[in-house]
């Protein structure tokens, strides 16, 4: 995956949308086409895709108008129907209409010291045929905060940090009550938190009454003034805060940690989510890393063991069943930066991380 940087300064969401589309239109259009093909391969009907996309955009418009306007401006600039871009932005909501995939995606590890800035790290595991390119975007929000984030082209947000010292990691979940109604897109929730919240408490309050149709967890971290972490698990059955810590590790993969929500967890039994979580839980105790690179070093597999956190495509399987660790990324709340490597933790530990 190749990452492309973009710096926008406008506070007007429509103008921001036009800039994104005029600068990287071909990449957005490729994602629209590839995702619609992917949905079709999963036997999600075009009418279902359109319904979810339209309902999710309406839900977003009611919850965070500026993010909806940004998408509307992109669609207009690209001369495509809004529901097509809406389906891309709501790709997790559309995928909730299909059976949960085997692997889930992503492993997150955050260390919070008693004093000083937290250290964070996560993998982004996804289908390589859907992620030839990605976006690193620095923007100014209407709240006056600056935001730096990684996302897929045509999607509001995913993983990032803001100038108030709040960071957001992102992992998918699966619940029995996930449905095709089309709630607020979870990728948009991640972006909205970065724009509108300056602390974990503000993020929790902001998302208190939000209605989703697909499940996800945001692991939040805040900076050195009051260092802490917490994970917010979202599902159509409710929202729970777990992993809250002011000293120690907060870990998450792709199953619910809240007991009530875990009762409805439908991540397939052969998913690696439990194995990856156990690996994180075994590797992290007693260690106090000070950076994303130090966490990568800690989590990297030795040559004598199979790499638990490093997914690679399996020959002979269809594209919908191919997974790869495409990105390793950490959040620097102190210096307002993303530290990343285009690849898995083992390679990141050997090579080092770049900074955006």
From TrEMBL:
Official protein name in the record: Peptidase C45 hydrolase domain-containing protein
Residue span, Peptidase C45 hydrolase domain: 120-290
Pfam families referenced in this protein's UniProt entry, alphabetically: AAT
Record Gene3D superfamilies: Penicillin V Acylase, Chain A
Segments crossing the lipid bilayer: none
InterPro entries: C45_proenzyme-like (IPR047794), Peptidase_C45 (IPR047801), Peptidase_C45_hydrolase (IPR005079)
Native species: Glutamicibacter uratoxydans (Arthrobacter uratoxydans)
């Amino acid at each position: 995956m190749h990452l492309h940087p973009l710096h926008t300064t406008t506070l007007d969401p429509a103008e921001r949308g036009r800039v994104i589309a005029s600068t990287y239109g071909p990449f957005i259009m490729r994602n629209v086409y590839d995702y619609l093909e992917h949905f079709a391969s999963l036997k999600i009907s075009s009418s279902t895709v359109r319904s979810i996309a339209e309902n999710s955009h309406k839900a977003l418009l009611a919850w965070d108008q500026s993010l909806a306007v940004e998408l509307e401006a992109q669609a207009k600039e690209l001369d495509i129907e809004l529901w097509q871009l809406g389906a891309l932005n709501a790709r997790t909501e559309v995928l909730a209409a299909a059976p949960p995939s085997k692997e889930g995606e992503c492993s997150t590890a955050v260390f919070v010291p008693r004093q000083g800035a937290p250290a964070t790290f996560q993998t982004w595991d996804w289908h390589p045929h859907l992620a030839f390119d990605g976006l690193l975007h620095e923007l100014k929000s209407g709240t006056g905060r600056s935001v730096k984030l990684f996302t897929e082209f045509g999607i509001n947000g995913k993983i990032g940090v803001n100038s108030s010292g709040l960071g957001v990691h992102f992992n998918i979940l699966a619940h029995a009550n996930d449905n095709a109604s089309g709630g607020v897109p979870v990728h948009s929730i991640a972006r909205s938190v970065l724009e509108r919240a300056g602390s974990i408490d503000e993020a929790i309050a902001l998302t208190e009454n939000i209605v989703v149709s697909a499940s996800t967890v945001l692991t939040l971290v805040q900076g050195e003034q009051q260092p802490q972490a917490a994970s917010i698990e979202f599902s159509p059955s409710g929202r729970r805060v777990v992993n809250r810590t002011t000293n120690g590790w907060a870990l998450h993969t792709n199953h619910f940690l809240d007991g009530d929500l875990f009762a409805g967890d439908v991540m397939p039994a052969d998913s690696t989510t439990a194995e990856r979580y156990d690996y994180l839980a075994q590797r992290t105790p007693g260690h106090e890393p000070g950076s994303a690179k130090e966490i990568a070093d800690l989590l990297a597999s030795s040559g004598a063991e199979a790499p638990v956190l490093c997914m690679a495509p399996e020959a002979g399987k269809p594209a919908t069943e191919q997974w790869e660790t495409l990105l390793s990324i950490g959040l620097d709340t102190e210096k307002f930066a993303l530290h990343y490597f285009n690849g898995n933790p083992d390679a990141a530990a050997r090579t080092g991380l770049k900074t955006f």
